Amino acid sequence: MNSKKFTLLLILLSLSFQAQNFSKYVNPMIGTGGHGHTFPGAIVPFGMVQLSPDTRIDGSWDGCSGYHYSDSVIYGFSHTHLNGTGVSDYGDIMLMPTMGKAGLTPKEYSSSFSHKNEKATAGFYSVKLDKHNIDVRLTTTKRVGYHEYTFNKAGTANIILDLNHRDKLLDGEIKVIDDKTIEVFRRSEAWATNQYIYARIEFSKPMPWSNSVKGTDNPKIGIITEEATTLQMVFSNKVKKGEKILVKVSISPTGYEGAAKNMLAEGKSNNFNEIQKLAVADWDKELSKIEVKSSDKDKLSVFYTALYHVFTQPNINMDVDGKYRGRDNKFYIAKGFEYYTVFSLWDTFRGAHPLMTLIDRKRTADFINTFIKQYEQGGKLPVWELASNETECMIGYHSVSVIADAMAKGITGFDYEKAFEASKKSAMLDIFGLNAYKQNNFISIDDEHESVSKTVEYAYDDWCIAQMAKILGKKEDYQYFMKRSQNWKNLYNPKNGFMQPRKNGNWLEPFEPREVNNNYTEGNSWHYSYSVQQDIPGLIAAHGGKEKFEQFIDAIFAAPDKTTGREQVDITGLIGQYAQGNEPSHHIAYLYNYVGKPEKTDAKIKFILDNYYKNSPDGLIGNEDCGQMSAWYILSSMGIYAVTPGLPEWQTTTPYFDEVKIHLEDGTTKVITKNTSREMLKTLGFESAKAFKYFKYDELTASPVIAAPRIFDLNTSVEITPLNPSDKIYYMTLDEDDANVRKTFKPYKGPFTIAKTTQIAAYAERKGEKSSVVHANSNRRPNNWDINVVSKATPQYTASGNLSLIDGINGDANWRKGEWLGYQGQTFEAVIDMKSPQQISNISSSYLQDSRAWILMPKKVEYWASMNGKDYVLLKTVENSLDAKDETVQVKDFPAEILPTQARYIKVKAYHYGKLPEWHQGAGGDAYIFVDEISVK
After folding, report:
1. From 94's CA, which of 27, 234, 492, 903 has a CA 20 to 30 Å away?
2. 376, β-bridge pairs
3. Share of the chain above pLDDT 70, in %
4. What share of the chain in percent tops pLDDT 90?
5. Which helix (H) or strand (E) holds 363?
6. Under a CB-based contact definition with an 8 Å cutoff, are residues 175 and 223 in contact?
C-alpha cells in the first residue's frame, strides 16, 4: 500500500468514526490486578497479535496473562497473550531493549518500571524502562506488532530475543537474513503442548547479531541459523541520544512464508502513529456496535472495556492468504470464512457467544466453521482449543451450545448438517465419563471425577443437540437426546434439593453442599444445583413448585459466604454461596423470573453491577475468562441474559443505562431504555426466529438409590429407595454361589440381609418406562483386623475411612474418584492389629504419584513388627525409585519379602517427600502422600 492510499484510508476511517470515539473509554488496566488475569498491551479486535509487557515468567496463577499490576519489573514484550484464563501460556517472540553490555538472563535484561510512566489505551501501550531510560511504545495490526524504542542516552543499544521466555522451548530457530531482518521459529510446550509460531522481525536500522546463548561474538553478516532448545540472541548497534528504533514483528502459525506474507500485507508502513490510529479506528468500529449513554464516566469505561475484553478473542489464526495449521498439524486454506483459535467454551457459551449472536452473526458463523474444521481434522468438536491444540481443559462439549444457539436464531453461513454430525459424534464418544453417562444415565464417583458437574453439563449439551435435531427434522435423534437431557434427575436428591454425588449406588455421605471437592468442577453443590438451564420448569417441579424453588434461590444468597473442603481460587465474588467470580453461578439470579419474582432478579443484578465491576486494575471480581466475565456485564446492563443458549430468547432485568442503541448487521438499530418492556427485551434481535415442529419424547425414570455398605463384617442390611415414591423397584443380587445360576430381577418388597460379598442391581419403573440399572457392591471384610492411623488425612481424601486401607480393594490411578487416603506435609504412619499372632512373609503398601497435583511417592517405606504393640522390630526399608519429575499419573507398590516372622502388630511408616522443590510450579508447598491398600501375607 503506498503512502497516499494509506493516508486516504486513514482519513476515511477517521471521518466514519470521529463522532463515535468509544475507544476513549477503554481502560486496558481493568482486570490486570486482583484475579482478573488480563493484560494491558496493544491489540486490535480478534487479532493474532497481543503485544504486551510481561512482568511474570514463573507461570504463577495470577501471572497467567504474563502481567500483574502489583509487579514492578518488566522482562520483555511478547506477541501473544491470553485474556483472563486460569492457566498460563503464550508469551511468544519476546523482545527487550537494553543498553550497554547485554546480559542474556532475565535478571540481567529485565528493568524496573513505574505505573506513573505507563499508559494503556485501545490499540496502544507505552512505558518507560527505568534501568536504561528507554521509552517503549507498542501498537499493532492483526498480524504485525509494532515496537518503537526511544533510547534517551547515547551508547550501545541492544535488542534481546529470548525464545525460552515463559514456556518450555521444544524446538527453536533464528535465521539472520541480513542486519535488519531475522526470521524466528518457536515450538513450545505449556498448556498447549505443541504450539508452533513463526515470526519475521524487521529493524528500522541495522542491528547486527552481537551475541547468543552459545557465546558467539560478532558473527559475519549473512544468513546465519542457530537451532537449539535453549535459544537467545542479542542484536546491537550504536545509537545517539534520543534516537528511535522501530521494530516490526509479523507472526504466523504456518511458516516463514506465512510470516513474510503477513508482513507484506500489514507491515509495509514505517509510521508508528499511522498504525496506532488505524488500530484506534478498528476499535471504534467494533465498539460502535453498542452505544450506551450515561453521565457516569466510570460506568462508560467499565462497559466499553468489557466490550473490548469480549472482542479480544477468539483470535484470527490464519495468514492473510487463508492458510492455517489444523488440529492434525497439517496445513489448510480457509475458504469463505476466517479461522480462529482460543475457545474457552466452558466459560463463553454462557454469555460471550450469545452476545456475539446478537451483534456479530458473521463472526459467529466463522467460529462454527472453525469448529467444523477442527472436528474434521481432530475427530471431535473443540472443548478448550488453543493454538491448534486441544487442551481438554474443563468439561462438557459446549461447542454444541454455540451451534444450537446460532441455528435457533437463524444464523446462516455454515453447514447445519455437518455441524449436527460433529455435535452428535462428539456426544457419543467414550471419554471423560461419557461411556458411563450413556449406559447409566448419570456419572457416579466410581466412574469419573467431577461426576456431578459432568452429568448436569452433558445433559444441557444433549438438549442443545436435540434442538439442532428438531430444526433439521431428525425425530429419532431429537427424542434420544431429549431423554438424555433429563439425566440430571438421577443426581437430584429430592430430600434436600441439591445435586448430590452418587457412589456405589447410593448418595455420597456425609454431604455438605458448601464443600468444594473432586465431584464438582471449580465449585460445589450450591453452584451446580441450579444448572438445569435446559429445563428450569422441570427443576421447579422437582422442588415442589414455584414457592419452594424461590426459597431455594433465596437460600444460595443467604447461605454462609465461606466454602469448605478444597481451597478453590476461582470461587470469588461470593454473595452467600453465589459466586459471581466463576461461571456456574452466572445465570442463577435470573431464575427468579421463572417463579414470578422479577423484582428479585432486578435487585440482585443491580447489586452485582454496582459492586463487582469497577474502573480500576482490580475491577473484575474473578478471572476475565476470555470475555465471559465482561459479557455478563454487557448483557445484564442492557437488561438481558441468555439463561438457556439454544433458545432464541433472553431472560430480562431492568436496563442499567439510560439508553442503549444496538446497531445490528442488517442496518437496523434497537433502542433500549429503562422503560423498554420485558416482552420486547425477551426477543430482542431475534423477533423473527422460526418455530419448528414439536416431537414427543419419553420422560426419564430416575434410577433408584441402593443403601449398602461398601464393606461389612458378618452381615448387613440392604435398602433400595426410588427417587420418585410412586416408582416400582426391581432388583437382583449376585454372590459367590451364583456363578452358574441364571438370575432375574424380582420386585423389591423391603430391606433384606446379605452375609457374603454381593453385587446388587436395581432399576425403577414408571408407566412401563424403566430406569437405567444401578449397581452397588457390598464386600464382606477379608479379615477382622483393626487399623489405627496416626496421621491425619486431609478431609477431602478420606476414601471410605481407615478400614479402606485393609479392605482388599485397590484404588485406581484416577485418584479424584475418592478411593485414596491423602496426607499433606506429614509422614504416614499406621498400625494394623491382626488380633492374634500371625506368621508373615510378605508386606506391601501402594502409593500414587501425580506430580502436577503435588502428590509424590514417599521417600521410603518402613515395615515394623511387634507382638505386644509397644516393642517394634524393623523388618525392612523400601526406598523409592520413582523420580518426582515424572509427571505420569501412576500407582506403585512398595513390597517387602521377609523371613517368616511371628507378629500381631504391623506398623507401616511412609516418609513424605517434604516441600515441593524449586522446579515445581508449587515450589515451597507441602507434598501429599496418597496411600490405599496395605497387604500382609
Report:
1. 27
2. none
3. 96
4. 92
5. helix 361-378
6. yes
CA distance 580 to 557: 11
Q: Which three cell numbers stand for residue 584?
A: 456456574
Residue 731 binned pLDDT confidence (cut-offs 50, 70, 90): very high
Which residues, including other chains, have CB under 8 Å from residue 643's CB and lie 6 or more apart? Answer: 533, 536, 587, 590, 591, 651
pLDDT class of 218 with cuts at 50, 70, 90? very low
CA-nearest of 391, 558, 532 to 452 is 532
pLDDT at 12: 41
Half-sphere exposure of 926 (CA within 13 A, CB side): 12
> Phi and psi (nearest 5°) for 347?
-85, -55
Provide the 8-state DSSP code for 549. H
User: How far is residue 903's CA from residue 936's CA, in Å, rounded to a whole number?
Assistant: 11
pLDDT, averaged across the chain: 95
| C-alpha to C-alpha distance for 334 and 322, rounded to whole angstroms | 5
Rounded CA gap, 603 and 894, in Å? 59
**b/e per residue 202-236 (b: at least 16 CB within 10 A):** bbbeebbbbbbbeeeeeeeeeebebebeebbbbbb
Confidence label for 818 from pLDDT (cuts 50, 70 and 90): confident
Q: Do the beta carbons of residue 806 and residue 783 sit within 8 Å? A: yes
Phi (first) and psi of residue 178, to 5 degrees: -155, -175
pLDDT score of 45 more than 90: yes
Q: With contact defined as beta carbons under 8 Å apart, do 44 and 142 qualify?
A: yes
Question: 226: pLDDT confidence band, cut at 50, 70 and 90?
Answer: low
How many CA atoms lie less than 13 Å away from 337 in the CB half-sphere?
Answer: 20
State how far the Cα of 231 lies from the Cα of 215, in Å rounded to an integer: 11
Q: How far apart are CA 408 and CA 53, in angstroms?
A: 41
Distance CA 246, CA 137 (A): 10
Q: How far is CA 908 from CA 122, 163, 512, in A?
A: 62, 48, 32
826-861 confidence digits (pLDDT tens): 999 999 999 999 999 999 999 999 999 999 999 999
Secondary structure element (H or E) that encloses residue 421, with its range: helix 416-427
**Could you read off the pLDDT of 240-264 as tens digits, one per residue?**
999 999 999 999 999 999 999 999 9
Angle of helix 399-408 relative to helix 361-378, nearest 10 degrees, comes to 140
Amino acid at 782: P
CA distance linking residue 373 with residue 369, whole number of Å: 6
State residue 647 phi and psi, 5-degree precision: -105, 135
pLDDT for residue 213: 64
Provide the grid cell at 32.
490486570
How far apart CA 657 and CA 560 sit, in angstroms, is 32
**Interior CA angle at 285 toward 283 and 287, to 5°?**
65
On whether the CB atoms of residues 153 and 130 are closer than 8 A, the answer is: no
CA 189, 190, 194, 195 torsion: positive or negative?
Answer: negative
**C-alpha grid cell, residue 72:** 514492578
Residue type, 184: V
- Under the banding of pLDDT at 50, 70 and 90, the label for residue 268 is very high
Distance of alpha carbon 641 from its chain centroid, rounded? 22
Its pTM stands at 0.94
Closest alpha carbon to 625 in 573, 558, 684:
573
CB 779 within 8 A of CB 808: yes
Cα distances (Å, whole numbers) of residue 527 to 115, 499, 570, 579, 589: 38, 9, 12, 8, 12
pLDDT higher than 60, residue 17: no
Q: What is the pLDDT of residues 284-293, one digit of tens each?
A: 999 999 999 9
The yes-or-no verdict on residue 134 having pLDDT over 80 is: yes
C-beta separation of 165 from 57 below 8 A: yes
Amino acid at 244: K
Helix, strand and coil in the chain, % to nearest 5: 25, 30, 45
Q: E-assigned strands of 467-553? A: 502-503, 506-507, 515-516
**Integer Cα distance of 802 and 796 in angstroms:** 14
